[in-house]
């Protein structure tokens, strides 16, 4: 079999002319079709499809209102509903519902119908020789061949012509027994003599089978043949194939092919009806905000003045050159510009502040832009006394996140374009916020309409800028070297007899960390507790704090964490100190109802009930103060002297940005203050919204940057600069094995109670009863709807529900809702899963990877005392992961587009290390295996027998290429498959055999363009 060279189609050229593939093809330059011989080229050029492409009628329309071409893929109906189109129609005084016209081409341009884009004439030759155009040309040729092969021809009529063979949604039980559809084949020409030579499916999969009466030698008007197609499948998912029927005209000795697509969805019809998209996905279009030239100040909430700050924060506005660079171009160009023109050439103690201030501005620019997507038009306000209540869609899901003290701009309908009223947020409820405006704000009636803009709260960013501006930047804290990190490893015996928490008494690594921290000389380099999943890093840090307090009567400690939940966990474990020694600082706007009752005695509130700080003399008497990293600025803000704290501890340090950690260090530390960091840089880092800021290093936490230095090597620096905890008290050894070897050098030891970790050994759900890891292979479909860019997958959601029901129904392996956690990377899938599980398992926690990392789970444990059903907050024995992505658009999509952030090593690590006893991963292996890390994990599970569903499509015993490139190989394979199909169809359908009818006018009715490039 000889096919067109994939490299020729991918790259526009082939470096190896003797590669064995075909190179002698003709390309129709006006429309890009690939023709295998002169006969086909002539046939193609005479076709209506060719003429329609040449004339711009096939893929695009022209809008007379907007004077632009509109792709039929994007949809004419979507275009005419757009805001820009309707605005222009109003300005022109015409009806926006105009009919589509033939596509036009701008002067000096040539319209490429293959790519649906106008090309300047001088660039036409380079365009048609480009890799992208070559791929799309092949797709167009494939579509033409597929369309032609699907037509009835030579007098043979095959029923189900319009829809092919679509089984629709078949329940799992019915698919297991076998579902059947029938094609009827007739010869409509009395004098022709045609026989059915063969009927088979293009794939070798047993999911579809075909049978027919082979005893009928010839088709005639009086005799027809019924072809039975049987679907037999035990697993959920989407199944597609192609039935190829080969006929022969016995008098002409000419063979030809008629094909019919076959598809089926195996699953629950009820689930599909409940979860299907309610409206088609339409990308949200951002319209630039008009400048706010006249803003009427609002009334700030009382909590703003609850803390007696003695100084003012710097404004630290984004410099114009940085804002301009970010507004002008793409992320790649902006990243290069910042590296070459704005950022210092080296990152050191002298340039540290400038470097990170720039990254903060980059991130701020993106955050401000992201808020625009939540702007609301034509909404109403509800007034109660001096407050106006605004309903905010998505508020309960923190989309957007709104806190007391934030500012929301409101513009009454009909106001001057630049005039806005500033509303300060005084209350935040589940679905609405309470705003307070200037007294000049008037609501004429309850039906008044408003435009709403969400503004970024810059206070946290200003606090970080303030810290970075501090003149304190010692090498020992920012860039410690081996000469700074001196001394020998302290003996564990110095603290072993005095350990408070007996759980760590026999844990050598934990004891060493405690001994090393307690023995630090004043002014030492930062010490790191490297705590992989389930190893007890917070327990170790808490014990270290208590030992420091025991050994040093003058010690005063500031403890920070990136989140309130992580900070609350530290307070709960230090509560033995009592509220005379331990103080928990909250931001004044913190809602009291969100604070665990057990934490409240360690706080201070004003007479109005807002969180604050006691008088300075009392604050100085506390031996331990706990806050979030950002709120730690309160100490400097109220005038506490630098050096008051002998130690700064940062828990979950891997989840905070470096500027956030610097708030405590650069404003409060002096030359003697010691810094201790606890975390795991192999798990999720801080959430950074800007791709430019991520590329430039803002996503790399302070602890990760330090641990990348040779001084913090886990072996060489053991006990002196770092201790790695190695005993895992959470997971079964088989769950731990793969991430242990991939991320932690194979040093982790499974030490959890077997009573818990082996709870599902022998369970009938497992493919291998002794291996509690299960990959459920499912070929589903990822969807989006309305204007949400988040993906969901109904097939996977339905499969998750099936596993939940099976677990709860098993009387031998008893499982409650509290035992199960479900992780999925997409918000839309979280919502679908909660919806589908609500009637059967409402107590199951469903959330993102971030929600399952340590601090949130710990927060739930703290709150257990405050919640009636506290049993639902224990750790999860079972974790089910729904990966969602199941794209088949391999020809045009790269790995990033196909997998999204599923292909993130840290997300992967967190997701697969949450389970105690049973890990179930549901996903499309053909997509997941494009990523080398996922491919390795799938190979691991398959090799141990932990696999259900359709088998892998690759050799799981082959060595994984960790440099990647699997997506490019799949593209080449897909192109070669299309090539081969097109060649066969042209040989058997386009060379001497004609259709019964001319091209249909609606030529693209059955083509959904699965390979179209998406912006």
From TrEMBL:
Cellular localisation: Cytoplasm
Record EC number: 3.6.4.13
Principal location listed in the UniProt entry: cytoplasm
Reactions listed under catalytic activity: ATP + H2O = ADP + phosphate + H(+)
Keyword annotations: ATP-binding, Cytoplasm, Helicase, Hydrolase, Nucleotide-binding, RNA-mediated gene silencing
UniProt key word Nucleotide-binding: yes
Protein name as catalogued: RNA helicase
Organism field: Rhodofomes roseus
